[in-house]
Amino acid sequence: MTETTEAPVPVGASANTRKVFIKTYGCQMNVYDSQRMGDALAKDGYEPTETIEDADLVLLNTCHIRERAAEKVYSELGRIRLIKAERHSQGREFRVGVTGCVAQAEGREIIARAPVVDLVVGPQTYHRLPEALARVARGDKVVDTDYAVEDKFDHLPNTSDRQIRARGVTAFLTVQEGCDKFCTFCVVPYTRGSEVSRPFAGIVEEARRLADSGVREVTLLGQNVNAWAGEDAAGRPVGLAGLLRALAEIPGIARLRYTTSHPRDMDAELIRAHADLESLMPYLHLPVQSGSDRILKAMNRRHTADDYLRLVETIRAARPDIAMSGDFIVGFPGETEEDFDATMRLVVEIGYASAFSFKYSPRPGTPGADMDDHVDEAVKSERLQRLQALLRVQQDRFAASLVGQTIPVLVEKPGRYAHQLVGRSPFLQPVVLPAGAGAIGEIVDVTIESTLPNSLMATGAGIEAGRKVA
Ligand code: 5AD
Ligand code: SF4
């Protein structure tokens, strides 16, 4: 999944005076989880705060996908240690928790390395946070990293009404968790466990409640979201395509997206849904990681570069305007200059609208970490630079191709200046549009006038405010 910035995630409020600060690292699933943790804690009397200095409880909802992500957590804990010492000198309570994937991967080790930490709770046990805190209050250090994903989907509160109101017009909805693919670079199968799908009825119910409170765009989340499987209301087996079709029927939901997908699980039915469903946005994040068959094999991706190229061809035949996005890793063990060239060639052939690229980072416990022929950091950096320069050109070219076109934009929030609003294009690009072009929550047709490095500027011309979509 795409990483987010590290903005604190506002959580639920209550009458009590205890305050929790949740800092979210990593992907959108962590953002969703932070919101659910906030809901679980609101029941326990915790109000949200956006500053650490205000908080009685600090939770770092962590990411373990690459080394830098995990190291950031430890440096933050160093800062928190000073705050805790100051609080204790004032005789005040201050609890510190580590949640998320670093918690799952390192467990008790975290407390050994950072004794400031009072509780370590893995992604499958957030619903037990209030119990864990009660034990901490009795003087225990708590480590709860059991796998109980079914429990999690059963027990976690649905998005609360308060959360929904706070959220605006777009929302994430976790439908699947875990991964059985075991790519040799990846910690996800170890931190999030094996694939579990949330039941159909619960998803539809939550989506309805989101729609009722004004959400217009829902992004279904899963580490391997195409592997979602369930039974529809009539008891028939359905996959992600069936789920999307059901969600598309919900009045008010105008836009659907899903992330992240594995190429092997892009089945014909899902591709057909891209052709049929107007509300399924023409944007697909389909990581390939490398363009070299040798490296793809070593990564255990279980497809070739050619399989991927043909798959994208099929998807584009179904939905010609689809914007492709991807993830790439450079410098996987054994990657030669030739292998890297194959990645560059694949990028040229596909033409990405956006992409994320990373230097390979050995993760303890994954097969990749134990492979021979690790690539020099300097070589990784140099390859990453070349790849990112090419991806930048492609992203700019895609954005420029929209100049002069009229496209539907979902208006999300006020812009930086009073005369502006900000929305999203169907292709997930932020669009700055003139205030008065439409209201928040509406989908309006705007004409793209120019591009900025990561957004589009629209004029008032061509606007049909309030175009009805659902
Ligand atoms: N090193 C570098 N990048 C990684 N990713 C996952 N594991 C690693 C790793 N060990 C990248 C992949 C994945 C994205 C979420 O993060 O590209 O698709
Ligand atoms: Fe990691 Fe591969 Fe699973 Fe994606 S498909 S979460 S990269 S193991």
UniProtKB/TrEMBL annotation:
Q: Assembly state and interactors?
A: Monomer.
InterPro entries listed in its UniProt record: Elp3/MiaA/NifB-like_rSAM, Methylthiotransferase, Methylthiotransferase_CS, Methylthiotransferase_N, Methylthiotransferase_N_sf, MiaB_methiolase, rSAM, rSAM_horseshoe
Which UniProt keyword terms apply here?
4Fe-4S, Cytoplasm, Iron, Iron-sulfur, Metal-binding, S-adenosyl-L-methionine, Transferase, tRNA processing
Transferase among the record's keywords?
yes
What is catalysed by this protein?
N(6)-dimethylallyladenosine(37) in tRNA + (sulfur carrier)-SH + AH2 + 2 S-adenosyl-L-methionine = 2-methylsulfanyl-N(6)-dimethylallyladenosine(37) in tRNA + (sulfur carrier)-H + 5'-deoxyadenosine + L-methionine + A + S-adenosyl-L-homocysteine + 2 H(+)
In what residue span(s) does the TRAM domain sit?
A: 400-462
Q: Which organism is it from?
A: Aurantimonas aggregata
The record's subcellular location field reads:
Cytoplasm
Q: Where is the Radical SAM core domain?
A: 165-397
Q: What residues does [4Fe-4S] cluster 1 bind to?
A: 27, 63, 101
Protein name (database record): tRNA-2-methylthio-N(6)-dimethylallyladenosine synthase
Q: Domain (MTTase N-terminal): give its ranges.
A: 18-138
The cofactor note reads: Binds 2 [4Fe-4S] clusters. One cluster is coordinated with 3 cysteines and an exchangeable S-adenosyl-L-methionine.
